[in-house]
Description:
By secondary structure, chain A is mostly helical. Chain A has helices at 25-33, 37-41, 45-52, 57-66, 68-74, 77-86, 96-102, 105-124, 128-137, 143-147; one strand at residues 151-152.
Amino acid sequence: MVVESFPVPIAIEYDIAVQGGKANSSDRKQARKRPSIEELFTRDRDVLFTVLGLLDPATLARVSLASRSWNALGSEERLWEIHCRVEPLCRNSWTPQTIVKNGGWKKFYANRAKEAKLVQELFNERDVVTFRDLWLTTGEILWENVIGPLIPI
Amino acid sequence: MSEADPEITLETYDKHQIKIPKSIATRSAIINMMIEDTGDVNEVVPLADKSCTLNIMNRVIEYLKKHAEFDNTGADDEVINEFDKEFQEQSDEIIFQTILAANFLDIKNLLELMCKKVADEIKKCKTPDDIRDRFNIRKDYTPEEVEEVKRAHPWIYDKNAK
């Protein structure tokens, strides 16, 4: 008998949100004190994405780290499609095929950032001038211009 | 400009009536459409969205009137920006409701202005903890999940980890 192993669909990872609703009553009371952005925007998710669309990748990362449901919001593909199309890190390297291969826009962005980070770590050990020269002469963009200095969180 | 500017009556979600000049009302694409649909300026225009309460509508109308005035007088950008900036300074509750109302009424520049305010507030938060505090979000992550989410965002680094 042959047992086929199916690849895990990517969508599962985006699904980690949602089950966060088991707050006890005192938690709920606390949440009532101030208007919660989620509560107000559940009526209109498109509006929420208008807000999130104004955020840069670094801020979106902080948003994703805030809670499960915010991670789901911050992983919305349409936000990352925009960043992949405009950010220097990705804008010249994406193709429909690479997006599919990487498992979506956000994953593609993340993989490009990972590569850039590796390059930076490699060159960190040499002097800055070499690093600059190499990137400039190969026509590539400087790391600092690509995603800025690494963002502390 | 020379043609008459009849008054339009709006009925807010909480059943108050507001009278405003047609030239102001039609700055909302939705109200404009509703007036054109009935073809009768005397008919009351009901605002069916929860966000369109008297309180919020008064603010929306204040914004529309001011911007109509800016357009008519050709005001400096500086003056407009100053008004906009002051208009943004409100409690979260009012900001959120204004966004929902502007979205419902299809008033693009007001929607953009208020969304930008919320985005700026999020940007001001320098850590995920700040975001949770500012927007009253409950932390529901396990430590393992936090690590996983961090790995999914390789363009940031954890300064505590180094």
